[in-house]
Amino acid sequence: MNFPKRRDTGELEIAATFSNAMPTGVAVSNSGRIFINFPKWGDDVVASVVELKDNNMEEPYPNEQMNTYNSSQPKETFLSVQALFADYLDRLWVLDTGAPFFDAPNREAAKLVSIDLKTNKILTSYTFPKDVLLDTTYLNDMRFDWERGNTGTAYITDSSVTGPGAIIILDLESGESRRVLDGVRSTAVDETIIPKVEGIPLQNKDEDGTISKFHVAVDGIELSPDKKTLYFCSLVGRYLYSIETDLLFLDFTDEQLESKVKTVVEKGSSDGLIMASDGTLYAGDYENNSIVAIDRNGVMETVVQNDLVMWPDSMSIGMDEYLYVTANQVHRQPGFNGGFDMRERPYLLLKIKINKVPSN
Known about the structure:
Layout: E1 13-18, E2 26-28, E3 34-37, E4 49-52, E5 58-60, E6 81-86, E7 91-96, E8 111-116, E9 121-126, E10 139-145, E11 153-158, E12 166-171, E13 177-180, E14 196-197, E15 200-201, E16 203-205, E17 211-213, E18 218-223, E19 229-234, E20 239-244, H1 254-258, E21 262-266, E22 273-275, E23 281-285, E24 290-294, E25 300-305, E26 312-317, E27 322-327, E28 347-353
């Protein structure tokens, strides 16, 4: 008997492979330099941030010292990096959760760091007060508006696994930060769904067989090219939400802001988001091994579907008009499989030609 075969769609290439720790973030600079980070979730992480060199070589970035955590210098060394972003001014932004294994964050180690890619020197480092960085906070991803404020504003997701989700707004001049949309429906886990990956419900499963709900709040975040709209989504949730950025700077309560949030489209369950300069938003769909594109009108199409796209995590668009995405098999980690590590190395950095440049 002949059974129908799954049809792969779209074209992709393997840009790099990783045989040791599992990567999450990727950032591609204007000149084409590629940076990858590795959070401390249980793997032996030698360097939290690396630059990919010829022949798949991983060089600690900006140096080995910064990538060797020193408890006496928590602000000057990386502890557990979750995300990267390369901006149009040739700076690399590094988001350090300060929270290995999703534990309560180390308040001195949790930080946002900018590095000058021309000199490979640290430019700035921001930490967060107690009313912003909660004991349950997990700093996940970030985007920037360079025109809001004198030196710009950062938007950061708190994708807590045990507490409220929120968007953290950071003024890059003063260093002052605050939480918005804190604990509301749009930044929370969608309790009505249980995602399935490779046909298996995505749930925490302990070694003794105890099963509990997988809980990760708002994760992916992105800004429209004109910076007037903020897009975001929860990791456990299938909808893309948006809000006008100006509203976030008015004297509204979180509940009042929630009433201003719009549901854009049901896009599937996503991790990271990325925006092209023409307003096309790209999102992973980890339940279907695919990447989708959403146009300005909310119309969605599948860009690529392939078994290699096994948990599309973070994305970056290069000036070479390729979309880069890490595929890291998050769902095969021991915590979802009764203590058994089901991941198959190598992990992948994939790239897809989209004929679009990034929106910075």
